[in-house]
Amino acid sequence: MECNVEATANQSNSSQTHLRREMECNVEATANQRNEYCKELLMRGGEELSFEELRAERYHQRKMQEMEERLNHLDKVKEQLSQELEEKKHLLLRRRRQAQPLASTDSSSNSVSAASAAQVAHEDSTSQTSSSRRPPATASFQIYDESQSAAAEPAGNSEPPPPELVNDVFLRPYERGLCLQVQCPPPGHHGRTREDRFTFIPQQPVSKTTKELSPIEETSVEAASMTSLRGLSAGTCSPLEEDQDQEEMDHTLSSGSVQTVLVTADPCDPNVLRQLLKLCDVTSSPHCHSEPRVLPVVEKDAVLELGGTAYLIHSRVLDRGSFSVYQAAAEDRHMLIKVDSCSVPWDFHQFSRLKNSSPAMESLPLISCFLFLDGCITIYTAPSVHMFMDLTEGAGWPSKILVAHKAVSLLQLVSQLHSSKLLHAALQPNILAWSQSPDVVFPVDWSSSVDLDLQRDVMSVQQLCSAQTYIRLGLLEPTAPAYLVDLVGLAETVHLLLTSRNMVLVKDNEGWTAEQFSGDEPCDMFSQMWRRFFRSLLNASGCSTLSVLSELKEQILAIYR
User: Fold this and answer.
1) How far apart are alpha carbons 179 and 172 in whole angstroms?
2) How far, rounded to the nearest angstrom, does the alpha carbon of residue 231 sit from its chain's CA centroid?
3) What is the 3-state secondary structure (H, E, C) of 425-484?
4) Lowest mean pLDDT among 11-20, 406-415, 505-514
5) Is the whole model's pTM more than 0.85, yes or no?
6) Which residues form the signal peptide (predicted)?
């Protein structure tokens, strides 16, 4: 009996020892266990967050911090440019003040010389002989015509023709302007000779290599030039009025308008764009290549080798002086090649922004860029790509159904541009291209475009050079949103495809519209739709451009579906 009790006691002691050891092991395991997540971060306000959501939150915070650093850098650059501008302004005013005493000294010396010459002529008869040998007095200014230079000498003048002047400015056949001959003796010269009688001032000749204007801009410029020529031919500008105008101009410049002219910089200036692209690091893209050599010569029916690929140049489809666009092919692919004398890859940046803005834009052609020392080459590659103006060639003008489909593609393009905070600002038919399968429209030139994410100070149309003609015509208010410029360009493009004519603007009681679609007479539903189309685009002030574009797209699809 005693043995059984002793055995039972031993068993109970051993079981208690075993339980105690198990409890100690569990406590030690619990102490060593570590959670793989943070409960405070995953549980907020009764919501459970996943690891992906936390990672996305940290990513957005890091991006916001990088954006703030970029904005701070831009503020510093802006402040530095403002300081440099002030220094230049003070330097300009200082030079003008230094030039004023010299001008007064020259005028006083000329008056003294004239008085002494008159006194000598009255007292000494030999002065009469010398005065007879002087050339006859000329007018204050006369219009200089190169074709009539032989007849410019007064009748009876036996003196030999003057030598060719060094600083003559002659107009070439493709330039416009007036060339004036003005008496302007050199500083410090008290007399007047035949060599320094004239200086030539051209009236802003316009070279054919300047930027091509839109049809509306060409009409406005021609009207303004005719008005200025009529004012000059009327002879209402006397030398006294010229002096008064010059004094008013000097007073205006000295009163502070110089700062206005200098501060109002073109947002599309290559130097401005170059500074902006430093923030985006465009050159790190695998599709952007740097070539340490000058821009190669591109010609029709020649082979252009870039990046190990040989491109056969078929034809030049656009020539704007500063850049040209060529149609080319390589293997079984077709492409449009833009050769630009500007070395800033702004086209590559803007097109890449548009292509990556939405999955719907992934069907746009592939783009690659090659940077050279004095320019860049941008290549748009697609299975089939054509210029927009090819629609007007071949078998007659495009049908209204085809124009309607292209208008829908244009509406989608502009809508996607604006939703991505991009502004093209120079939509014209000859810089647009389209590709098949799928059918998309895109610009091949972005030199006038604006990235409103980087250029947040561009708010109104008065800051855009391409909108100045529309402002002068009264079509756009200076303070109107900058997006409205694209709507006017869209209207011009569709009007040309639809009517084969440039758009002529008229204004009636309901606002602006195209002249060919301004009637009130009864018409079919197609003509009525196009009337609403142009009125909506040309009178969109105060409306959201995205809503206007969406409504027009629905109206066209409802009729031409």
Assistant:
1) 12
2) 32
3) CCCCHHHEEEECCCCEEEECCCCCCEECCCCCCCCEHHHCHHHHHHHHHCCCCCCCECCH
4) 11-20
5) no
6) none
User: Which residues, including other chains, have CB under 8 Å from residue 302's CB and lie 6 or more apart?
Assistant: 313
pLDDT tens digit sequence for 285-338: 999 999 999 999 999 999 999 989 999 999 999 999 999 999 999 988 899 999
Which residue in 441, 348, 372, 358 sits closest to 402, CA to CA? Answer: 441
Question: Residue 527 gets which letter from DSSP?
Answer: H
160 cis-preceded (ω within 30 degrees of 0) = no
The model's confidence at residue 241, banded by pLDDT at 50, 70 and 90, is: very low
Q: Measuring CA to CA, which residue among 477, 415, 474, 466 is closest to residue 440? A: 415
Q: How far apart are CA 110 and CA 160, in angstroms?
A: 27
Element at 394 (helix H, strand E): none
What backbone phi and psi angles, to 5 degrees, belong to 87?
A: -65, -45
Domain boundaries, the chain: 282-383, 386-561
Query: At the fourth CATH level, which superfamily is domain 282-383?
Result: Phosphorylase Kinase; domain 1 (3.30.200.20)
Look at the chain and count its residues. Answer: 561
388 exposure class (CB count in 10 Å sphere: 0-12, 13-18, 19+): buried
C-alpha separations of 311 from 318, 366, 448 in Å? 18, 15, 28
pLDDT tens digits along 431-466: 999 887 778 999 999 999 999 999 999 999 999 999
SS3 call for 183: strand
Distance, in Å, from the CA atom of 561 to the CA atom of 556, rounded to the nearest integer, reads 8
* Cα–Cα distance list, 415 to 89, 121, 376, 440 (Å): 42, 81, 28, 13
Task: Outline where DSSP puts E strands in 185-322.
Answer: 198-202, 288-290, 303-306, 309-319
3-state secondary structure of 554: helix
Q: Which residues lie closer than 8 Å to 127 by C-beta, 6 or more apart?
A: 117, 120, 121
Phi-psi region of 288 (alpha: psi -120 to 50; beta: other; left: phi over 0): beta
Determine the Cα–Cα distance for residues 325 and 67; give it in Å rounded to an integer: 36
